[in-house]
């Protein structure tokens, strides 16, 4: 991830300081660092077992990844968009699998275009997933209370937030870890 960011910075230094890069790399970093910890805290166990246990494990992983990304990006969302949202937690349960079907299915259609009949067999699930992806965004209109307008986040509180999150991940003593987590929540609320 660091190598990709450095390569991007060398290729286009301006791109490295855009909100799109902050959001993309921030979400990816948060998922890599935090999703497994959050899943464990939520009771995610081993992958094996029945089909429903595997489905539960996958859904829990998706929720944990979404939570990690949403929390990590909250100060950026507040600063750039002057909004924070809880809608992403629910919407990503639809949007992420739908986007996977759209991307993989779209590539499969392109690669199988020369084979008669195959694209028409692959197209309906891609069409359904595209519709699900686009319609999921309308849920914010149905539940507007899940999105709040906020003032742009202060740089000081943003730094305090990220330092407290880092301390939460690094510190081993439970009391200090709890204090760091509390500082992160406070910084997020105050910012």
Structure report:
This protein is mainly alpha-helical. It is 76% helix and 3% strand. It is built from eight helices and two strands. Strands 1-2 form a two-stranded antiparallel sheet. The radius of gyration is 20 Å and the shape is globular. The chain starts with a helix and ends with a helix.
Instruction: Tell me, rounded to a whole number, the average pLDDT.
Output: 87
End-to-end Cα distance, whole Å, is 27 Å
Strand content: under 5%
Return the string of H and E elements.
Answer: HHHEHHHEHH
Q: What is the SS-derived class?
A: mainly alpha
Helix content: over 70%
Coarse morphology? globular
Q: Note the main sheet.
A: 2 strands, antiparallel
List unreliable stretches of 5+ residues. Answer: none
Beta strand count: 2
Number of contiguous helices: 8
- What's the gyration radius in Å? 20 Å
Spatial arrangement of strands, main beta sheet: 1-2
Task: Describe this protein with a few key phrases.
191 residues, mainly alpha, two-stranded antiparallel ribbon, 76% helix
What's the layout of helices and strands?
Blueprint (H helix, E strand, L loop, with lengths): L1 H10 L7 H23 L9 H31 L1 E3 L1 H25 L6 H19 L2 H4 L4 E3 L5 H16 L3 H17 L1
Antiparallel strand pairs: 1-2
In short:
The chain is mainly alpha-helical and 191 residues long.
